[in-house]
Amino acid sequence: DPRANCPADVEQLGRATWTFLHTTAAYYPERPSPAQRTHMLGLLNSLPVLYPCSHCASHLGECMKANPPDVTGRGSLSRWLCERHNEVNEMLGKEKFDCAKTDERWKDGPADGSCD
Ligand code: FAD
């Protein structure tokens, strides 16, 4: 790919960021400590301020105002993030993702072992 070393565009940045966020949520503790909750809230609340796509950042900020992050555990955080990603998918006319498949996609891989 001749553009492999080019600066990230909105799509590449988005894929990389969703990979980071969903994977981080997938490995977030079931019972996070108060410090872990505080850090996760800080990470998520930073995105509307710092995400380097300004219209993406302000849209996310609006979504987060309507639906504040749930950092009480990995299951609820993964679902929260899936729902926010689906809001972006919907806005962009992309297919909605089945949030029941979040762990399969980001943590366990499919049951047929094709990702092992
Ligand atoms: P992506 O949407 O990047 O998804 C990557 C993979 O995640 C998919 O292949 C699928 O396997 C999985 N997936 C899809 N949906 C879900 C879900 N709901 N839960 C779990 N896993 C899922 N782009 C814009 O043009 N305008 C914007 O305003 C905008 N806002 C963004 C805001 C944020 C916070 C982020 C991180 C990205 C934003 N983007 C925006 C980028 C956009 O979301 C996509 O990343 C980009 O269009 C590339 O899309 P894609 O089809 O490759 O898959």
Automatic annotation (TrEMBL):
Keywords: Disulfide bond, FAD, Flavoprotein, Mitochondrion, Oxidoreductase
Gene Ontology cellular component list: mitochondrial intermembrane space
Cellular localization per UniProt: Mitochondrion intermembrane space
GO molecular function: flavin adenine dinucleotide binding; flavin-dependent sulfhydryl oxidase activity
EC number, as in UniProt: 1.8.3.2
ERV/ALR sulfhydryl oxidase domain ranges (all copies): 6-106
Reactions listed under catalytic activity: 2 R'C(R)SH + O2 = R'C(R)S-S(R)CR' + H2O2
Reported cofactor(s): FAD
The protein, known as: Sulfhydryl oxidase
Source organism: Botryobasidium botryosum (strain FD-172 SS1)
Region of the whole protein represented: 58 to 173 of 173
